[in-house]
Design a protein that fits this description.
CATH class of the largest domain: Mainly Alpha
Helix content: 40-55%
Distance between the termini: 47 Å
Largest sheet: 4 strands, mixed
Number of domains: 2
CATH topology of the largest domain: Glutathione S-transferase Yfyf (Class Pi), Chain A, domain 2
Oligomer: single chain
Radius of gyration: 18 Å
Shape: globular
Low-confidence stretches: 250-265
CATH architecture of the largest domain: Up-down Bundle
Bound molecules: glutathione
């Protein structure tokens, strides 16, 4: 069976989980412990980041490389169009989502964590000592490494990321006004990248992720709850209900969290 080395809370891992579910591939999730658990990843794949896919003796790191491998190896329900123009558009949009949406979403999340202690507590990985949960800056780097960032991100960087995210979501809403998916009339890699990498902006509602219930359907205030972006989140909700497989068992994770996440404008 396919094995996905992942962090449940990783948006690049979520992009891959969406693709695996869309293709109807069975896989086993292997949760990597931030810090110490990444040593095994380095041994296995030569780098420390998740997601990493293991298919028998084949090991692939990086969500884009994994998507390309899956489409080649498991060609049913292709996610990369064959037509050259559509293929090019799909790959450009995917890279844009990975680079810009993904990085700005992380910054928005860090901003929200700085503003709201219950949100910070809910987002930090299980095992983070309580003493570290009070101030973002007092959490050791390992606990933040699951986000792929350091601590101490400045307010200007966070504000710029929020503005960029709003701009990008508005642009996506324009595309989705006229068509069901971003590139063709079927979901492609671009759709899964955008859907996965907006996870931190608004966590999907429903039993898809093993995260505290308090986070489900919640997101960055001013973005997740803004009517302007309703078409985008409605589109993403449909993608989830059509293709993402809910967790097999009842979510037993616990934790308290906010009903909204406040960010100062
Ligand atoms: N380009 C990579 C990015 C993966 C990435 O940033 N992973 C983060 C989790 S979302 C990670 O493993 N961070 C831990 C670290 O950098 O040590 C991909 O597309 O898979």
């Amino acid at each position: 069976m396919l094995e996905l080395y992942q962090f449940e809370m990783s948006h690049y891992s979520e992009k891959v989980r969406l693709i695996l579910d869309y293709k109807g591939l069975e896989y086993r999730k292997i949760e990597v412990t931030p810090g110490i658990g990444q040593l095994e990843l380095v041994r296995m794949s030569g780098q420390r980041q998740v997601p990493v896919l293991k298919d028998g003796s084949v090991v692939i790191a990086d969500s884009t490389a994994i998507a390309e491998y899956l489409d080649k190896q498991y060609p049913d329900k292709p996610i990369i169009p064959g037509d050259p123009k559509l293929r090019g558009l799909c790959l450009i949009l995917e890279q844009w989502a990975d680079e810009l949406i993904g990085l700005n979403a992380r910054k928005c999340l860090v901003g929200a964590m700085g503003q709201d202690q219950s949100f910070r507590t809910a987002v930090l990985p299980a095992g983070t000592p309580d003493i570290f949960k009070t101030f973002v800056g007092s959490v050791p780097g390992d606990f933040f490494s699951f986000l792929g960032i350091g601590v101490g991100m400045g307010p200007d960087a966070i504000k710029a990321a929020q503005a960029a995210m709003k701009h990008d979501l508005a642009s996506l809403c324009f595309i989705l006004m006229k068509q069901p998916y971003l590139i063709t009339d079927q979901p492609t890699l671009a759709d899964f990248a955008v859907a996965g990498l907006t996870m931190y902006v608004k966590f999907p509602a429903g039993n898809y992720l093993n995260i505290p219930d308090a986070l489900k359907g919640k997101g960055i205030s001013g973005i997740a709850d803004a009517g302007t972006f309703y078409p985008f989140f409605t589109w993403r909700d449909k993608l989830y209900s059509d293709y993402r497989k809910p967790l097999a068992t009842t979510n037993t994770s616990t934790g308290s969290g906010p009903t909204s996440i406040n960010i100062e404008d």
